[in-house]
Design a protein that fits this description.
Layout: H1 13-47, H2 50-79, H3 81-100, H4 105-131, H5 136-167, H6 170-173, H7 178-188, H8 205-228, H9 233-253, H10 269-298, H11 304-310, H12 312-332, H13 335-351, H14 361-389, H15 396-416, H16 418-422, H17 428-452
Helix pairs in contact: 1-2, 1-4, 1-5, 1-7, 1-10, 2-3, 2-4, 2-8, 2-15, 3-4, 3-7, 4-15, 5-11, 5-12, 5-14, 8-9, 8-15, 10-14, 10-15, 10-17, 12-14, 13-14, 13-17
Length: about 450
């Protein structure tokens, strides 16, 4: 196991290697998330299905990612983070090729489900490597570096994906991640430290199935409701069944000896309240990214490349400011950052109400995008550090899995509910309704952070 850093000491070569692996492996998952939104209109143009196909293209990935990221955390603890990273990278590459070759929307959605399984293996294991290799303020700086560096995927994804769509095909956009997959596999071969495993970790496949089926039923109901209506037995039946199965999942977690979702983790105040803030903030992020990208292409008339570039200031702010925010929050505590950040993002979402017809990027959208980016940079690293720092580092695998699962499930449900939010059509009025809904979620995230999160006590001095 890599030795921990004394606060203020320089990183060792192996620590730098571990950080590089964590960044590169996570880059793959983040790149795919940022690529898909700019490709959605082109996918529908070729494969058909309208808004429903677009929602399922996003949510198929989030469904398996969100439900299996929990069991992937246990797998990471049980079988070793490096091994799980290798398997996840290889499976992600296979699924990406299948998506690029998909002849129908149905095949694409199935391949996206598989890709979500692979994605579930990457981010928890990456964060767990960082948590087990760094301590104190250095851990905050490492998480900030990880956040800023993986945000490069958020820059490269829309730009490269947009260029692929405009110059060649949306299919090429899903093959971009082959390069970081190969790089991560090469870096893993250079790690000298033994893989970290927990002898008492157990993989709970029954709970994983209950979680996936429960979320799947609810998501199906939300996505199909605009098409079939709430009175349809298919809609309310799948919704009720999904809710019942998910309740069964939670009930099971409270009663088995080694749960997939250890509810005892939520006894830690910052873990519980931080994850509630995660639910609200990441639900808003997922919905906002989907709505802005699709609206700019289908209603405002921008190309895929231009739509990708339009939100790039958000990612640039994250890259420039996130590491510094993580370092400062490591010294003074995360509470102020987790309060101010979401409130600033809420203000940015409300500024997007300036969007009208005819569309002008510089005066209507850019001011909201800039404020949104500053708020996001102030939020992400302190939020991650607060949640994972609240539990013992030996539980970092499952802890990071829980936090990531909540973030992905939040996006999953928010995107699934898009039809109900915008009234079935993403026109200008629907865009405005979505912006208000995003702002409400973010404002609630800031209030929850202020009420619930507490700054850790400063370390005792000799």
């Amino acid at each position: 196991m890599v030795s921990r850093t004394v606060t203020g000491a320089a990183r060792s070569p192996q620590q730098r290697l571990i950080l590089a692996i964590a960044i590169t492996a996570s880059f793959v998952a983040f790149l795919d998330m940022s690529v898909v939104t700019v490709a959605l209109p082109a996918i529908v143009d070729q494969l058909g299905g309208g808004l429903t196909t677009q929602q399922w293209t996003v949510d198929a990935y989030l469904l398996t990612l969100g439900s299996l990221i929990l069991v992937a955390g246990s797998v990471s603890d049980a079988f070793g983070r490096q091994r799980v990273l290798r398997i996840g990278l290889i499976l992600f590459g296979i699924a990406s090729v299948a998506i690029a070759a998909a002849p129908t929307a149905g095949v694409l959605i199935v391949a996206r489900l598989v890709q979500g399984v692979a994605g579930a293996m990457l981010v928890p294991s990456s964060l767990a490597l960082i948590m087990s290799s760094f301590d104190g303020a250095e851990r905050g700086r490492a998480i900030g570096t990880w956040t800023a560096a993986t945000s490069g995927a958020m820059i490269a994804g829309p730009l490269l994906g947009g260029l692929a769509v405009d110059l060649a095909s949306w299919r090429l956009a899903f093959l971009i991640n082959v390069v970081p997959i190969g790089a991560a596999l090469l870096l893993l071969a250079r790690v000298e430290a033994r893989d970290v495993r927990r002898d008492d970790a157990r993989v709970d496949l029954v709970s994983a199935a209950l979680c996936a089926l429960g979320l799947g039923g609810a998501v199906f109901a939300l996505i199909e409701q605009p098409n079939l209506g709430w009175s349809s037995p298919t809609v309310w039946g799948s919704g009720l069944a999904g809710a019942a199965v998910f309740a069964w999942f939670v009930w099971r977690q409270a009663r088995i000896a080694q749960p997939m979702l250890p509810l005892t983790l939520f006894a830690a105040r910052n873990f519980a309240w931080g994850n509630l803030a995660t639910l609200l903030v990441y639900g808003a992020l997922g919905l906002n990214g989907f709505v802005v990208s699709v609206y700019l292409q289908e209603r405002a008339g921008l190309s895929a490349t231009a739509a990708g570039l339009a939100t790039m200031p958000i990612t640039l702010a994250l890259v420039v400011l996130s590491s510094r925010a993580g370092a400062v929050a490591g010294r003074v505590g995360p509470r102020w950052f987790m309060t101010f950040g979401p409130l600033a993002m809420a203000g940015g979402a409300l500024l997007m109400l300036r969007v009208t017809e005819p569309f002008s990027y510089w005066t209507q959208l850019l001011p909201g995008v800039l404020l949104f980016g500053v708020g996001l940079a102030a939020t992400v690293s302190p939020l991650t550090a607060a949640v994972l720092g609240a539990i013992d580092s030996s539980r970092s695998g499952i802890g990071s899995a829980v936090n990531n699962a909540i973030a992905r499930v939040a996006s999953l449900v928010a995107v699934a509910a898009l039809g109900a939010v915008v009234g079935g059509e993403l026109d200008l009025a629907g865009f405005h309704r979505a912006a208000v809904f995003v702002a409400v979620l973010l404002a609630l995230g800031g209030v929850v952070s202020w009420l619930g999160v507490r700054n850790p006590a400063p370390p005792a001095t000799t």
